[in-house]
Amino acid sequence: MNRRDFVRLGWATVIGAGVGKLRPAFAESLALRHVPGPPQHPQMATPESKATGRAPDFTLQIAPMMVELAPQVVISTIAYNNKVPGPLMRVREGQLVTVDVVNDTDVPEYVHWHGLLVPSEVDGAEEEGTPPVPPHGRRRYQFVAKPAGSRWYHSHTMAMMDLHRGSYTGQFGFLMIDSANDPGLYDQEVFLALREWEYFLSTMDQDEMPVDPNDPTPENPATPDPRPNGLEVNAPLYSINDKMLGAGDPLRVQSGQRILMHLLNASASQIHRVALPAHKFQVIALDGNPVPAPQLVSVVEIAPGERVDAIVEMNQPGVWILGEPRDVARQSGMGIVVEYAKQQQRATWLPPPNARWDYTVFGKTAPHPAPDQTIDMVFEKVPGGPHGINHWLVNGKEFPHEREFILRQGGRYRLVFHNRSDDAHPLHMHRHLFELVELNGKPTAGIMKDTVIVPAFGRATVDLVADQPGLTLFHCHIQQHMDFGFMALFRYA
Q1: E-assigned strands of 303-390?
Q2: What is the pTM of this model?
Q3: d(CA 439, CA 442)
Q4: For residue 387, with 0-12 CB atoms within 10 Å meaning exposed, 13-18 middle and 19 or more buried, which class applies?
Q5: Closest residue by Cα to residue 450 from 304, 240, 344
Q6: Average pLDDT for 347-371
Q7: pLDDT digits (tens, 9 = 90+) for 200-241
Q8: For residues 174 and 178, what is the distance between their CA atoms, to the nearest angstrom?
Q9: Lower Cβ count inside 10 Å, N or C end of the chain?
């Protein structure tokens, strides 16, 4: 047993012992962690927030809060509107949206509108020139809601060694942009965000996904790097939304219903898988964008920043656990009970069949227009050693990459991601969508995303049309990797 499993086992013993219909029995000795946040201060208006005289469609308040993940498991975090996830923002495609953000903390903040095609000055990234939401102040964001689909919003501050900032906090929420073309072929819609809590540094790799020995590794170096790995970010507690498995209400369904599940990985550090025994997910959209070939899968894999929309046919009456197939993760909270009407038995978990997650099965076979330019991007890790932090290089350098990546408006660019590290990386491009061209040599077409997992020692190729002028941030969506060099800034000529 390694140290990470030992840390989690303390929680798993408490949480995993007999998940019942609604919640497990918790040990009376489980300590209550209570760390009060700083006092709230009066909201301060700025001329910017009053300039247009328009009432906001939404108001977000950034402030400390306590989250009860389970009975006697209470943690302190920073969140929006005293809830985790923050309020669901639901708007129409093409709607002008006004959001007032009130920052009741002592540090500047940024809110990033992930997956939206918005100008850089409102995208919510310091590197793109977005102004911050000042401490104990406020700022107005205004943008046109596009494209349609499952988007989300979250903090985009740097955290570095402070594991209580940025995506390590509870600052995230769903943003749904509805299209007039949505046929609505479902009976119930649910929003499920996968999370970890109480992050800490350790010498163990945070990527717990088992490596498939059959996966190709086209970027594997001939000579392995002998340097010892550095400190990684781990977490002992997991949840879906704000509850650990067995705590809170179950997802209640009726036999024969079609449930549309909006799955989001709002984690700061880990790729997750989820399964629902005896059921399958019909994946209809990736990152909010409809796929050319919807497919039934037993397991959904989703990395930080990604979204998966799937229809689940409720045709197996019972009480089930929708959760992470890894026992340690599920027993540490990564799951939710799914309860059919008139079913009273204990919740059941059955391991799913072994299945490889493969984006390309959701694509089509079609030629791609020739790009105007191909840009190769090579990603490498500089191991930090037992007491240091790993650093990350893009084409041999840490951020910034001053005027290295230049786009011309209207141009078509082929980005080739060469991952020469032993970590899988969810790579996110701000303010743009890209089309997946190939993954580890397997071609595909028609899959539009804003975040893509490049496997360890793997390669992915995407096509991007430069149709959003302005500074554009590119980075790994694992917070620690982004903070320590894994970013680049694209500029328009």
Answers
A1: 307-313, 319-323, 335-340, 373-382
A2: 0.90
A3: 5
A4: exposed
A5: 304
A6: 96
A7: 999 876 545 566 677 899 999 999 899 999 999 999 999 999
A8: 13
A9: N
